[in-house]
Here is the input.
Amino acid sequence: LAELLFWPALLLYGEAAVGYLGEARRPGPLGRAATWGVRLGWVVQTALLGVQAARDDGFPWATWAGSLNLFVWLVVGAYLIWGCRPSYRLLGLAVMPLAVSLLVVARAGGGTGIGAKSNYSNLFLVLHVGLVLAAFAGFTLAAALSALYLWQERRLKQRVTTILRRPAPSLTTLDRLAARTVLASLPALTLGIGVGVARLVDRGDRVDALVVATIVTWSVWASYLVLRATGWSGRRAAYVALAGFVLVIVVRLALPATHFA
Amino acid sequence: MNHLILVGTSHHHAPVELRERVALDGEQARALSARLGEAVCLSTCNRTELYVESAHAEEAERLAVEALAGVEPALYRLRDEAAALHLFRVAAGLDSLVPGEGEILGQVRAAYESGTPGALLDRVFRHALHAGRKVRAQTAIGESPASVSSAAAALAEQVFGALDGRTVLLLGAGKVSEGAARNLRSRGATIALAANSKTDRSEIERQLPSVDVVVSSTSSQGIVLDAATVARARRGRPLLLVDLAVPRDLDPAIHELDGCYLYDIDDLEAIVAETLSGRRSEAERAEAIVAAEAEKFHEWQASLEIVPAIASLRARAESIREAELRKAEGMLGRLDDAERRAVESITSQIVNKLLHLPTVRLKQAAAAADGVVYAEAVRHLFGLGEDER
Here is the structure.
């Protein structure tokens, strides 16, 4: 059943990615179709996760690939909060191709199948993996909002004549939403790291590269909030958010093996 | 049968000197509608049109032309389908000076509500309002600004979102800048200071750190606001500056400052030209919607001609059925109630099945041009109406 659910989810996310590309070229029906693709794809992926959880009787996303599957679901879910509004459809152009790519990688690594139950306790996995992934999903969305900010700001600076034919969310709205998303995500990451470090100390395990990179990522996003409090906003804040996102990708994709072993 | 008659003039046919001769205010339009009988008067700054419903088209048209005396050479006269299609295009904003402008739909509604429409006019105006709403909902024809002043306000929304609570600094006064200020105010912004040549410069510099939009249109021959002053006041906070003056008032280097977006009159006119070209491409889609709605209206109107023929045919068939059952009363008298009901049901079904296809075909024919011919043929073949004669 998990196999049956993976393909429609991937196809619907793929349709959404293509639809948003069409929406960027000519706003209209393709954008609406893309939004429905995201909605239905997310519902199907929710069912896929449900089947995985039911079959494994617990938290089956503790593997690197499994956590990627959950990460995609969280990112798309967070995007859906705004993505259904027409002016935010362009945000989908940043989010959905990433979601499709990561879902394919998750499947290639066996993260969409059955039988990946971890030896760790469900409570630890929910608190550690769940919170860290939820925070990373929030950071991904904040980075997408920041990318949209930079695109919109560039249009205003270049005095693009089509700017009113293809309206996007205003600069201040994008800036504010990105900051709020980070503000909500950072406590989740803090708690997730705290739970992981507590267990690390308790078991006397070694700090690996992923832990270090995650703490650096936390530092960058914390700096983002501190800098905003001191008056940084707009373009400079958007660049910091994109830098933070690069670290999220490094943590999610480049440093998997030892930590998940 | 009643006809729809339209007599009117618009910006396409008459300059303002002629149009103002037949311009009507609300009360005059109401009075003229009442005087013409079943009529609606639509009078805006771009058009005065009289829509009249009458069985005597020639006479109604003559009266309408008389009512618009003084501009006869510039009048157009349309009837029935052509008049309805024209009204649909007007309501959709497709006949407006700026394609897709939204005000006309409200003006059509107001004219309809203050008129004295009969059944046909009532239907055509309600259908036109529906077509106008549909065009706005399904196309982007009315979404983009069509003037420099509204483009300035729309740009402010691109920077700040909703303009509620945002403040504006006006430098100088002029028709376009007043229009921009009006547009900004209508979207929730407030004017913090309207400065003129007598305003102390320190007052302008005092307001500069707190405002969100600067609109400038002074007659100064030099720069009124330089980049260094703005940089000191803003420190990276977003600011939209609209320079409507020629020669320009605002230092072009302001645009290079972080968070500052400076648009001059050429930039705004280029944006308006682009949005208007977008409106024209959307107008093609809007025309298709209007044509489809006009076709629906035509089908409804045509069905009015065929419905009496269908009703007569069915009544005739029913009367024959009942008469034949009465003739067979002697034989049917031996039937019990259940058997009698079965006979009633069977004979009704036979009649209905026989008439089903002719009814469908008649309705289809009504939508085509030969609906009246079909109706007449049915009356002749079945002798409908001959009993009365």
Notes: Chain A has a mean pLDDT of 85. The radius of gyration of chain A is 19 Å. Chain A touches chain B through 22 residues (CB under 8 Å).
